[in-house]
Amino acid sequence: MAIARQHHTGNRRLLAAAAAAATVAALTAGCTSGSKNDKNAAGPSVSPSATTAAASPSAPADPEAADRAEAQAAYTHYWDVLTAAYAKADPDDPNLTKVATGNALVQTQQDLANFRTRGRVFSGQPQHSNTGITFKADTKLKTAVITDCLDVSQWKPVEKTGGKEVQLPSTRLLRYVNTVTAEKWSNGWMVLEDKQEGKAC
User: Fold this and answer.
1) For 6, which DSSP code?
2) How many whole angstroms separate alpha carbon 64 and alpha carbon 155?
3) What's the chain's Rg over C-alpha atoms?
């Protein structure tokens, strides 16, 4: 009967081994499943480049943008006043002293006085293009230098009586570089100098 006992003992050992293997398999499956769930719970990954882009600061604003816009508006108004004064050849136009001073004012008033003496006024309007504005450094008052291409081909001197166009030299420039210097005063921008550069544009 010793053989029978050995047979029963061997069967018990086989059953125990099988049960142990099943337990290990179950535990392994649980760990694998948990690992997958943990990965899914972590959510989508974010690329380093996307994070860097989101954190990048925006470009700094132009600190002189407001002054540049004011200078541009003042320059446009200055030419509106000049155009109106030349349409009447009126050196005493009170609006002139509101937009210009110094050499710019004196030069304009003398020019208008000469046209009035000759009985001439201006017809049409000047045109501007490629306007550029820079600011001088280390000045007591904010000072702008405004340069553009001035087109006077449609701004012509005519006889005040009759409106006949005055014939001018054919060699004169009709489109030229013009430079204006203006200061920012408490009551607005004032033109100090208005200079024709003598260069075609």
Assistant:
1) H
2) 33
3) 44
Residue 190 CB partners (closer than 8 Å, separation 6+)? 99, 100, 101, 182, 183
Cα distance between the two ends of the chain: 125
CB 165 within 8 A of CB 121: no
Q: What is the pLDDT of residues 43-57, one digit of tens each?
A: 555 555 444 545 556
Q: What is the mean pLDDT of residues 77-89?
A: 98
CA distance 134 to 143: 9
CB atoms within 10 A of CB 200: 10
pLDDT in tens, 137-187: 999 999 999 999 999 999 999 999 999 999 999 999 999 999 999 999 999
48 DSSP assignment: H
Question: Cβ distance 200 to 156 under 8 Å?
Answer: no
User: Helix and strand tally (H, E) in the chain?
Assistant: 5, 6
Percent of the chain past pLDDT 90, that is, above it, reads 67
User: In which residue are the tokens 């030419």 written?
Assistant: 79
Residue in this structure with the two tokens 């719970």, named with its chain if needed:
41
122 contacts 159 by C-beta, under 8 angstroms: no
